């Protein structure tokens, strides 16, 4: 019979919590107490961020589903309403975000190589690009607001003056001045698309379909939620920048830069899909 | 002994303080990073919410006993009160069997007709609650129980505590995220309390549009609260997945992990994939209600059935979030208390993952009568049957584990056995509901209510209680009175059956759910009276059982004897540290040899001195 | 992945994406953006949608593989990402099946209110 030993914990010399002298020489400053190595910590953090991105994909996915459903059922609404989105501004925003993704990826590279100056520069550039993106979005939103091109419940298209920009003013089908829950043309009982009276210079968009507001509901939901994520990203990048100025990152410790980078690339990826789906409907 | 004290008297080098005493004061708890403390705080919060939800349950059942008591046969029937979803005619409306024809227009027409009809209806009789109050009562009962109790439930209160211990790790992967999960849960609780005290919610926990976007009750507050609770759930899921992947010490391979860990892992997968869709759905309700977004409103071009797709894409997998951890606990309990290695370890492990994946394919079975297309309904019905297979695999494996085991009927085992019967009934009745043809008749009747209470209460909560009684000595360091514990289990078991079995009969005979008053049905169905009374009696019996269980556990805190490290004789790692464990979990990191097996109960030996067990160190070959 | 595998895969510094790769991907993304805008000048009927989604998917793949490092990482992370896309496709797919089935009936009802 072999000597059986208790496998219940035997008290022994116990290191007071918080001290990890056994890693003396190579102990990284940013190793959390419950991890055994930086590699383990990095891998765990990376997986954590990837799973968070999975949740973001599913989160936006709901809106993509709504888009798919409405576009499948009401293609005429989408074809009509996209006229009011400026392709050029959309393409500009796409380019801005792609560039910001590039600078963010370069920032990760810089952190890995210990290039502190480059890292800071890249982070700042990414931030500026994000700000520019939001600026363009603001311009677009303001134009929509001025023309009453809002979500379905507040949809009241009108012209402010005889403007005729790239995002040409909508035809006034019912010159409502206040947001109404239901437009005059969408009483729910008359399905025929109203062919609103052409008003001279606005005749290139005949026949505003009933339910045109649905497009804008989806537009504002998707781009609005995306913009909120851009803001969140900016906050995270600012935090990184502060730490970068403290010289915290380097080849031994660049996890947070990588994680925020992953998030930022997802934000870019979502816009990569939003752009053609919203702006480039033929 | 020093005569001149220049520094504090050195403390003898002995065991460090346990996690309960390592750091004092409320801030050391509210801002702790220790997974065990977070688990305990979750436990307290969740049990309190259970109490709150239970009060609503008793309110509902008491209310529903009164028509049975006051009804005189042949009396002029009072008009049925309003249900949560606005219904035009005053008599009970059979389940909507329309296949989509007129769906949208019907909604519009019905809501207008109902508004008109309700003004000419005579005032409904007053029992315990008014119709409005009744709607609020069942809504809040459901919402509190689901979002605050059952979904966080086992993973948050027990999983947080036990998972790192079972793996042999020092903590979860992201302790700060874990704390944030808990704080978010608290904030969600606050939101629901605000809803409770400022007018309540009457949409049903399912928030179906168009009612939820047009009613004036606290829908926005409630959806924001649920949104926040969703993030709490997501963060827990992220944490557990990363923990299982990267915080296993050397030697702890995937197939040496206890099955509870497998179930928590599968649950976490569902949490991260499904909950975000709930998040966007709740956000859309809030936007629709406050800004007139129009996505779910037919008048603005929207589709109410789309809401249901969105909602159930989360809410069906959510029920697997509820049950999978419970099944994991049962695997532990059955093995330990049969003193036998679990039968079919890999089958059970893979069946957890299978349930997680298959659970995503079947959400449309909640929508058979909603206007969903025939094609989709048939697809969903067929797929629904597939989910029962892995569940059945588990049940057979548990029974095979018990076969020729040395069964010890201590309290946790009583709960485990209750689970098998109650979950068995609940699961089998799910088949009636998954079959398209029968569901058309049973939808929105008490049959559904009985089914989900059997699986959620008889399944998840019973497993939760079993797990609580199992790990109580580890968490508190105290043993409770086993006789009292078993009494509680028995009363709960009897109470649950008495409460919910009559509801199967009620439902199959046509009693609709969410009805304030059923007295108009009593002339045609006099048996409804007796069945409702039985159900109410059962509710009170269950409440008594829960009180007995509470007294048993809480009493142990004062009068229980000290618990040994391994009171039940299990071989998994959480029993190798002291009860309660120190903050760092293990005094020295456990060494996991190739021979390690958390179910190898032959290595477990009883020690009469401590009234506990210890595990023989197996020889390394 | 066990902790041992992790240690092997991520020695100090980890894999650094070469600079020229990043630049090449960036330029490719810009070119593809121009391409997708140009595609709207050509009328392919319903094909336009597929072309647009197709190009977007190529761009997304470039971002995922190179900027997000999936090309150089353990395949596990790619699996995680793919799983998310698959579940999203499941959600969209089944919902669309149902909605497209019921749409004609809903339209008919809206046009002929009872």
From TrEMBL, chain B:
<dbReference type="InterPro" id="IPR023615">
    <property type="entry name" value="Cyt_c_Oxase_su1_BS"/>
</dbReference>
<keyword id="KW-0479">Metal-binding</keyword>
<feature type="transmembrane region" description="Helical">
    <location>
        <begin position="307"/>
        <end position="330"/>
    </location>
</feature>
<feature type="transmembrane region" description="Helical">
    <location>
        <begin position="184"/>
        <end position="201"/>
    </location>
</feature>
<keyword id="KW-0679">Respiratory chain</keyword>
<keyword id="KW-0813">Transport</keyword>
<keyword id="KW-0249">Electron transport</keyword>
<feature type="transmembrane region" description="Helical">
    <location>
        <begin position="138"/>
        <end position="163"/>
    </location>
</feature>
<keyword id="KW-1133">Transmembrane helix</keyword>
<feature type="transmembrane region" description="Helical">
    <location>
        <begin position="259"/>
        <end position="287"/>
    </location>
</feature>
<feature type="transmembrane region" description="Helical">
    <location>
        <begin position="40"/>
        <end position="60"/>
    </location>
</feature>
<dbReference type="InterPro" id="IPR023616">
    <property type="entry name" value="Cyt_c_oxase-like_su1_dom"/>
</dbReference>
<feature type="transmembrane region" description="Helical">
    <location>
        <begin position="484"/>
        <end position="506"/>
    </location>
</feature>
<keyword id="KW-0472">Membrane</keyword>
<keyword id="KW-0812">Transmembrane</keyword>
<dbReference type="GO" id="GO:0016020">
    <property type="term" value="C:membrane"/>
</dbReference>
<keyword id="KW-0349">Heme</keyword>
<feature type="transmembrane region" description="Helical">
    <location>
        <begin position="414"/>
        <end position="437"/>
    </location>
</feature>
<dbReference type="GO" id="GO:0015990">
    <property type="term" value="P:electron transport coupled proton transport"/>
</dbReference>
<dbReference type="GO" id="GO:0004129">
    <property type="term" value="F:cytochrome-c oxidase activity"/>
</dbReference>
<comment type="similarity">
    <text>Belongs to the heme-copper respiratory oxidase family.</text>
</comment>
<protein>
    <submittedName>
        <fullName>Cytochrome c oxidase polypeptide I</fullName>
    </submittedName>
</protein>
<dbReference type="Pfam" id="PF00115">
    <property type="entry name" value="COX1"/>
</dbReference>
<dbReference type="GO" id="GO:0009060">
    <property type="term" value="P:aerobic respiration"/>
</dbReference>
<feature type="transmembrane region" description="Helical">
    <location>
        <begin position="342"/>
        <end position="363"/>
    </location>
</feature>
<dbReference type="GO" id="GO:0022904">
    <property type="term" value="P:respiratory electron transport chain"/>
</dbReference>
<feature type="domain" description="Cytochrome oxidase subunit I profile">
    <location>
        <begin position="21"/>
        <end position="593"/>
    </location>
</feature>
<keyword id="KW-0408">Iron</keyword>
<dbReference type="InterPro" id="IPR000883">
    <property type="entry name" value="Cyt_C_Oxase_1"/>
</dbReference>
<feature type="transmembrane region" description="Helical">
    <location>
        <begin position="537"/>
        <end position="559"/>
    </location>
</feature>
<feature type="transmembrane region" description="Helical">
    <location>
        <begin position="452"/>
        <end position="472"/>
    </location>
</feature>
<dbReference type="GO" id="GO:0020037">
    <property type="term" value="F:heme binding"/>
</dbReference>
<dbReference type="InterPro" id="IPR036927">
    <property type="entry name" value="Cyt_c_oxase-like_su1_sf"/>
</dbReference>
<feature type="transmembrane region" description="Helical">
    <location>
        <begin position="221"/>
        <end position="247"/>
    </location>
</feature>
<feature type="transmembrane region" description="Helical">
    <location>
        <begin position="375"/>
        <end position="393"/>
    </location>
</feature>
């Amino acid at each position: 019979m072999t000597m059986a030993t208790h496998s219940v914990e035997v008290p022994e010399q116990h290191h007071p919590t918080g001290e990890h002298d056994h890693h003396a020489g190579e102990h990284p400053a940013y190793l959390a107490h419950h991890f055994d190595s930086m590699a383990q910590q990095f891998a765990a953090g990376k997986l954590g961020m990837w799973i968070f991105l999975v949740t973001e994909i599913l989160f936006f996915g709901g809106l993509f589903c709504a888009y798919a459903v409405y576009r499948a059922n009401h293609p005429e609404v989408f074809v009509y309403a996209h006229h009011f989105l400026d392709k050029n501004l959309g393409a500009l925003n796409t380019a801005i975000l792609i560039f910001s993704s590039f600078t963010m990826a370069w920032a990760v590279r810089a952190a890995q190589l210990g290039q502190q100056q480059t890292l800071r520069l890249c982070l700042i550039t990414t931030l500026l690009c994000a700000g520019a993106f939001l600026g363009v979005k603001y311009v677009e939103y303001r134009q929509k607001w001025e023309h009453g091109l809002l979500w379905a419940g507040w949809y009241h298209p009108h012209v402010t003056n005889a403007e005729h920009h790239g995002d040409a003013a909508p035809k006034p089908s019912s010159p409502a001045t206040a947001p109404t829950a239901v437009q005059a043309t969408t009483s729910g009982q008359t399905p025929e698309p109203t062919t609103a009276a052409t008003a001279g210079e606005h005749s290139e968009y005949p026949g505003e379909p009933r339910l045109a507001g649905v497009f804008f509901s989806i537009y504002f939901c998707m781009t609005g939620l995306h913009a909120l994520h851009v803001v969140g990203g900016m906050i995270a990048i600012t935090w990184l920048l502060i730490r970068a100025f403290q010289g915290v990152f380097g080849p031994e410790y660049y996890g947070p830069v990588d994680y925020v980078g992953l998030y930022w690339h997802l934000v870019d990826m979502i816009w990569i899909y939003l752009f053609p789906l919203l702006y480039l409907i033929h | 002994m020093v005569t001149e004290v220049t520094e504090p008297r050195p403390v003898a080098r002995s065991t460090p303080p346990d996690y309960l005493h390592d750091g004092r004061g409320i801030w050391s708890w509210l801002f702790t990073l220790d997974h065990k403390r977070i688990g305990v705080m979750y436990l307290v919060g969740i049990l309190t919410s259970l109490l709150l939800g239970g009060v609503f349950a008793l309110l509902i059942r008491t209310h529903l006993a009164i028509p049975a008591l006051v009804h005189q046969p042949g009396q002029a029937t009072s008009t049925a009160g309003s249900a949560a979803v606005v219904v035009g005619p005053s008599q009970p409306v059979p389940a909507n069997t329309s296949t989509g024809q007129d769906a949208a227009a019907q909604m519009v027409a019905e809501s207008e007709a109902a508004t008109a009809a309700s003004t000419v209806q005579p005032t409904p009789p007053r029992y315990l609650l008014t119709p409005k109050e009744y709607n609020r009562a069942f809504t809040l009962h459901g919402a509190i129980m689901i979002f605050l109790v059952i979904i966080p439930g086992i993973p948050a209160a027990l999983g947080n505590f036990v998972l790192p211990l079972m793996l042999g790790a020092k903590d979860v992967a992201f302790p700060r995220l874990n704390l944030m999960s808990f704080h978010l849960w608290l904030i969600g609780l606050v939101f629901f309390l605000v809803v409770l005290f400022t007018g309540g919610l009457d949409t049903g926990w399912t928030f179906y549009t168009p009612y939820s976007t047009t009613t004036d009750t606290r829908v926005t507050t409630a959806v924001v609260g649920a949104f926040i609770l969703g993030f709490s759930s997501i963060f827990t899921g992220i944490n557990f997945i990363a923990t299982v992947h990267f915080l296993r010490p050397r030697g702890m391979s995937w197939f040496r992990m206890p099955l509870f860990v497998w179930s928590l892992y599968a649950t976490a997968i569902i949490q991260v994939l499904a909950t975000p869709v709930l998040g966007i759905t709740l956000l859309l309700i809030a936007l629709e209600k406050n800004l007139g977004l129009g996505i779910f409103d037919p008048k603005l071009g929207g589709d109410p059935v789309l809401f249901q797709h969105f909602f159930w894409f989360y809410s069906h997998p959510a029920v697997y979030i509820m049950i999978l951890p419970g099944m994991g606990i049962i695997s532990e309990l059955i093995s330990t208390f049969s003193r036998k290695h679990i039968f079919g370890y890999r089958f059970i492990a893979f069946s957890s993952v299978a349930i997680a994946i298959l659970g995503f394919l079947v959400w449309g079975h909640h929508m058979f009568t909603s206007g969903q297309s025939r094609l989709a309904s048939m697809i969903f019905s067929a797929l629904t049957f597939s989910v029962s297979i892995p569940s059945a695999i588990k049940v057979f494996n548990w029974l095979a584990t018990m076969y020729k085991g040395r069964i010890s009927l201590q309290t946790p085992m009583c709960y485990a056995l209750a689970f098998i019967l109650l979950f068995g009934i609940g699961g089998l009745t799910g088949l009636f509901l998954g079959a398209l043809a029968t569901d058309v008749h049973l939808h929105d009747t008490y049959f559904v209510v009985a089914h989900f209470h059997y699986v959620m209460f008889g399944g998840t909560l019973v497993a939760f209680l079993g797990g609580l009684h199992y790990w109580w000595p580890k968490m508190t360091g105290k043993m409770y009175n086993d006789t009292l514990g078993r009494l509680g289990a028995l009363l709960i078991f009897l109470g649950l059956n008495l409460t919910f079995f009559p509801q199967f009969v009620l439902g199959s005979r046509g009693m609709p759910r969410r009805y304030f008053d059923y007295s108009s049905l009593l002339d045609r169905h006099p048996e409804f009276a007796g069945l409702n009374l039985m159900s109410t009696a059962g509710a009170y019996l269950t409440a008594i059982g829960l009180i007995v269980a509470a007294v048993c556990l809480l009493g142990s805190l004062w009068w229980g004897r000290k618990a040994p490290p391994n009171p039940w004789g299990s071989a998994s790692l959480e029993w190798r540290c002291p009860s309660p464990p120190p903050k760092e979990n293990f005094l020295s990191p456990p060494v996991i040899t190739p021979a390690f097996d958390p179910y190898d109960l032959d290595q477990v030996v009883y020690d009469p001195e401590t009234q506990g067990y210890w595990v023989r160190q197996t020889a390394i070959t | 992945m066990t902790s041992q595998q992790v240690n092997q895969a991520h020695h100090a510094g980890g894999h650094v994406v070469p600079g020229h790769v990043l630049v090449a991907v960036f330029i490719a993304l810009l070119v593809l953006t121009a391409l997708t805008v140009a595609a709207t000048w050509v009328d392919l009927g319903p094909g336009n949608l597929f072309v647009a989604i197709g190009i977007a998917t190529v761009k997304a793949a470039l971002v995922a593989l190179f900027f997000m490092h999936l090309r150089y990482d353990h395949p596990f992370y790619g699996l995680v990402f793919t799983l998310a896309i698959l579940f999203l496709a499941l959600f969209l797919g089944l919902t669309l099946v149902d909605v497209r089935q019921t749409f004609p009936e809903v339209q008919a009802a809206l046009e002929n209110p009872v």
